Amino acid sequence: MLGIEDPWVWLAYLGSILVTLICLFYGWIRRNAADDELTPTDRLWALEEQQVEDALR
């Protein structure tokens, strides 16, 4: 079929398609699972980063 006679090659193609579908499904399920709350550490880092960028200008 399609010029590929080796069953292991077919298995590799099907496996890669299957893994791709699993990854897409997992990403779709988990797309909103992360919480986006800023911690005080994040705020401090952003402030320091802004100060460094301002100093370089």
DSSP, total strands:
0
Mean pLDDT: 91
| Estimated helix fraction | over 70%
Order of helices and strands: HH
* Rg calculated over all Cα atoms: 23 Å
Largest sheet: none
What structural class is derived from the secondary structure elements?
mainly alpha
Distance between the termini: 63 Å
Unreliable residue runs: none
Keywords: Membrane, Transmembrane, Transmembrane helix
InterPro entries: Symport_access (IPR054615)
Would you mind describing this structure in some detail?
With 57 residues, the protein is mostly helical. The protein has a domain at 1-33. Helices cover 70% and strands 0% of the residues. It has two helices and no strands. The chain has helices at residues 7-29, 40-56. The radius of gyration is 23 Å and the shape is elongated. It starts with 6 loop residues before the first helix and ends with a helix. The mean pLDDT is 91. Keywords: Membrane, Transmembrane, Transmembrane helix. The chain crosses the membrane at residues 12-29.
Q: Keyphrases for this structure?
A:
0% strand; 57 residues; 2 helices; mainly alpha
Helix-strand layout with pairing:
Layout: H1 7-29, H2 40-56
Keywords: Membrane, Transmembrane, Transmembrane helix
Transmembrane segments: 12-29
Question: How would you summarize what this structure contains?
Answer:
The protein has two helices and no strands. The protein is mainly alpha-helical.
